[in-house]
Amino acid sequence: MLLGIDVGTSATKTVLFDEQGQALASHTEGYPMMTPKSAWAEQDPEDWWRATVNGIRACISTSGIDPAEIKGIGFSGQMNGHVMLDKNNQPLRPAILWCDLRAVEEAEEMKEKIGARRVVDLTGNTAIPGLGAAKILWVKNHEPQHYDKAAHILLPKDYVRFRLTGDFATEVSDASGWQLLDIHKRQWSDEVLSKMGLDKAKLPKVYESPEATGVVSAEAARETGLKAGTVVAGGAGDNPAAGVGMGAMTEGRSFTSIGTSGVPYMLTEKVFPDYEGRVNCLCAASPGKWMMMGCIQAAGFSLKWLKDTVCSAEVLEAEKEGRDPFAVMDELAVGIKPGSEGLLFLPYLLGERSPHSDADCRGVFFGLSAIHGRPHMIRAVMEGVSFSMRQCLEVYDELGARLTDMRVCGGGAKSFLWPQILADIYGTEVSRVQQAEGGAALGAAILGGVAAGIYPSVEAACDNVVKKGDSFQPDPQAHQYYDGYYKLHKKLYYDLYKDFKTLAGL
C-alpha cells in the first residue's frame, strides 16, 4: 500500500492506494484561508498538520489495513508559500501562501539586485510577487524580527513532512518555485541568495522528488497510527505531482488542471525560460526533467464565485434533488452555443499570474446584453478560463516546447461540458485518466512507491499505473468559430490595461 497526502489551499486530501493505483480509502479535511489585507493570503500551519493526522487515521480505519502494509508515503502540496520556524520549531507567523501578491516591490528589488535577465537564467523564471523568493524577502524587509528569529524556512508540504519525520527537507520541483534554486544544477543558488541577502542555513536540504528524505518518527507514529520507520519520499509541488498522477512524464505530455486555480502543464527534457515572465519553467518530479507551467489564478474559483453570487436558483434545485450544483449549471450551459452568443469573460477575479503577471487586473464580462441569462454567464466563465489556458499553451509553443498529448484533471474535469470546451478551444483531443482519485495525491503516492523500491522509476510507474480514460475530440467547426472570440479575448486585456491601473488607484 502507498499513501498520498496532498496539502492543498482549501483542504488536505489523504488517499490510500494499492500499488496498481486503485484508491482504497480517502479523506479530505478543509481549513480557512485568512486575508488580513487586500491581496494577502495566509494560513495556520497547524491546520495542515491536524488535517493530515485526521486523514491518515481515517484512511487506516476505513480500509481496515495493518499500517505495516503501507510501504511508502509521498507528499504533494500548494507551492510558492512558506512557513518560518523559530529555534524551537514553532511557527513565527502565519504561512504566506502562493496566491498572496503583497511582494510587488520585492520582486522589483530582485530584478535590481540580481538583474532581470540573470534571475531568469538562474531560476528559469522572471521575478514576480506570486513566486516564493519575493515573499521571503518581504518578511525580511517588513518583519525583520521574524526573519532574524527564523531557524528554518519551509514550503507548506515540507512543514508537514517535518512534523511526520523530524527532517528539514524539500525537493526540486517545489523548491524551484521559490526562485532560490539554480534550475539547471537543481541545487540552491549561492548567487541568488547572496545578492538578496538571504541566509542559506535557514533553507532545507534539497532532494529529487522520488528520493527518500526520511522515515516516520516514533512520535508521529503514535499520533497518526502509522508504523514508525515507514519511508517518506521527497514528493512534489501539487502540479508537478499531478504530472506524475496524470502520467504526463514524457516529452510533450501535458495536462490542464482545473481546480481553484487553473494550470496548463507540459513536461520537457530541457529548460525553456520565458524572459517575458508569462509562464514558469520549473524542475519536474523526475531527475533530469523540467516542466512548463502557467497559473490562471481564478479558474474553478471563477465558476464557484458565479455559483455563490448569481446561481442561487441552481443551488436550491441541486439541494432539493440531492445533486451537485455544478452539474445543474453544466446542464444549463450545454444548451448555449460556443461563444455564449457574444459574451466573453476575463477571469481576473484574483488578479492574474499567467500569461499576465498583473495584481491590478480584474474580472470582466464583456458584451453583456438583454439576451443573456445565467446559462450564458456559466458557459462564458468556462470559455474565458479556457481561452486564458490556451494563451499559455501558445507561449510554450513559441518557446519551442511541443504538445504531444493533453489530459485534464481537477474539479473541472468532472464536468461533462468543460473538457469538451477545452478540446474545442485547444483544437486537440483532451482525455481524462481512469483513476477516480488521480492527480496530485496519486502522483505523491507513486513517488512514495519509487522511494520505497516498489517501482524502478517514476516513468515506469506511470506506464504501469496511469491509464487513459474517456476522451473528448475537438469539433473543427467549433474550434474555427472560437478563434474569433479567442483573438478578442487576448486583445481585451491590453485594451483595458491602463483602465485596470486607473481603477487600482481610485
Task: Indicate the overall shape.
Answer: globular
Specify the biggest β-sheet.
7 strands, mixed
Number of domains: 2
- Strand share of the residues? 15-25%
Q: Can you identify the CATH superfamily of the largest domain?
A: ATPase, nucleotide binding domain
Give the CATH architecture of the largest domain.
2-Layer Sandwich
Number of helices: 18
Low-confidence stretches are: none
Distance linking N and C termini: 56 Å
What is the CATH third-level topology name of the largest domain? Nucleotidyltransferase, domain 5
According to DSSP, the number of beta strands is 24
Radius of gyration: 22 Å
Category from helices, strands and their pairing: alpha+beta
Instruction: Give the fraction of residues assigned to helices.
Output: 40-55%
What is the name of the CATH class of the largest domain?
A: Alpha Beta
| Average pLDDT score | 96
Give an overview in words.
With 506 residues, the protein is an alpha+beta fold. The chain folds into 2 domains: 276 residues, ATPase, nucleotide binding domain (Nucleotidyltransferase, domain 5, 2-Layer Sandwich), CATH 3.30.420.40; 152 residues, Nucleotidyltransferase, domain 5 (2-Layer Sandwich), CATH 3.30.420. It contains 18 helices and 24 strands. The strands form 8 sheets. Strands 1, 2, 3, 5, 13, 14 and 15 form a 7-stranded mixed beta sheet that branches. Strands 18-19-17-16-22 form a 5-stranded mixed beta sheet, sandwiched between helices. It starts with a strand and ends with a helix. The mean pLDDT is 96.
